[in-house]
Amino acid sequence: MKFRVDRDVLADAVAWAARSLPVRPSAPVLAGLLIEASHDELVLSTFDYETSARATLQAEVSDEGRALVSGRLLADICRSLPAKPVEMVIDGARVSLTCGSARFSLQTLPVEDYPALPEMPTATGTVQSDVFAHAVAQAVTAAGRDDMLPVLTGVRLEIDGSTISLLATDRFRLSHRELGWDPRSPDDTHAALVPAKVLGDTAKSLTNGSEVTIALSSGGTGEGIIGFEGAAAGGTRRTTTRLLDGEFPKVRSLFPAEHLMVAKVNKAELVESVKRVALVAERNTAVQLAFKDGVLTLDAGSGDEAQASESIEADIDGDEITTGFNPQFLLDGLTAIDEEVVELAFTQASKPVVISGSTGEGADDSQFRYLLMPRRLLS
Q1: Euclidean distance between the first and final Cα of the chain, in Å?
Q2: Are the beta carbons of 152 and 170 closer than 8 angstroms?
Q3: Is the alpha carbon torsion for 331, 329, 155, 15 positive or negative?
Q4: What residues have CB less than 8 Å from 377, skipping those under 6 apart?
Q5: Residue 137 in contact with residue 155, Cβ under 8 Å?
Q6: Which residues contact 2 (CB under 8 A, 6 or more apart)?
């Protein structure tokens, strides 16, 4: 194996592929990054039996071949190289890397022991890359992080014709985002439970090209895989991951059909107020929100401890309400909203609030809702 490639293109591709490497690999070879050189193409791959990453880039290939080297070490080396072309050559059990006057020699791992990467499923459709990345970033806000409840660490991706719905919940909050896309078949309906971290990292990393191809296998939820592919500098990027097994809770019904009180508040003012008042909130205690007479009053702290209070203007339509929320969860939902004005919709103080952007006429590509359970207020 011998090839020559642009330093920036190589460093970017290696860093992208290496981000999927497991922290504690179950086998030494899974810490490796597979390098395959053929024709005028270089393919860099990582795989941990759950998630695979495959970067394809153009290179001047003199001798075809393949080698497996430490992925994180190669990423560190490529990041530190001078801005000159990189040449890599396999020499027995080692790989030689030369860039200008810098030269590295890396021990190879047994490439014959490396598992075969899964095939990309048949393409289901395409979506605008920046829109998809932003929608996923909003949706994963409510995804669980408790590995003891693996189903809740996923995002439910539902495809119905030209609409994609993303749903996530950790039992205390719920996010719902809809966006349009270009399906392969307008009558297709699919559902998949995708690991939230993989989905978030992948969507964010595939914004160099204009579109992302989504490929969903036709197998059952636990057996299938989902693939994402997009363009990158000098080539393409592809990620596949196994779908989570289990039944995602039926959460859509949690969004109420009507509300008894809706308050519109400037998002920036509310975010800053919550941050200030929350400074005195004890761990696991709520920040109180009282809506009355065109004013939202925020309070935290009680008794002999530090206390804080602040009031901001609010356009209130409906009855007075006093409730309370986990301040970090409240901030997470508010900061995920794009609009300058947010709507907080209530049925009653003891029921969840639905937070969304106040868009006026509304837009199909800005449909994000965040449902948050209230917390008990200290007396």
Answers
A1: 72
A2: yes
A3: positive
A4: 286, 288, 322, 323, 324
A5: no
A6: 37, 61, 62, 63, 65, 87, 88, 89, 90
Domains of the chain: 2-113 (3.10.150.10), 123-242 (3.10.150.10), 255-372 (3.10.150.10)
Is the pLDDT at 359 greater than 90? The verdict is: no
Which amino acid, residue 158? E
Q: Give per-residue pLDDT as tens, 33-57.
A: 999 999 889 999 999 999 999 999 9
Residue 365 reports pLDDT greater than 50: no
Report the DSSP beta bridge partners of residue 65.
Answer: 37
Q: Whats the size of the chain, residue-wise?
A: 379
What pLDDT does residue 213 have? 97
Q: What is the DSSP string of 209-268?
A: SSEEEEEE-SS-TTT-EEEEEEEETTEEEEEEEEPPPS-----GGGS-S--SEEEEEEHH
- pTM, whole model, 2 decimals? 0.91
**Each residue's pLDDT tens digit, 78-111:** 999 999 999 999 988 999 999 999 999 999 999 9
Six-digit token pair at 6?
């642009």
Question: What are the Cα distances from residue 288, in Å, to 34, 89, 316, 331?
Answer: 54, 64, 17, 14
Bigger pLDDT: 336 vs 284: 336
Supply the mean pLDDT for the chain.
Answer: 92
The position carrying tokens 């992080």 is 145
CA distance 56 to 307: 57
Please say if the pLDDT value at position 221 is more than 90.
no
Instruction: Order the strands of the 94-99 sheet from edge to edge.
Output: 60-63, 2-5, 86-91, 94-99, 102-107
Q: Which residue matches tokens 């080396």?
A: 77
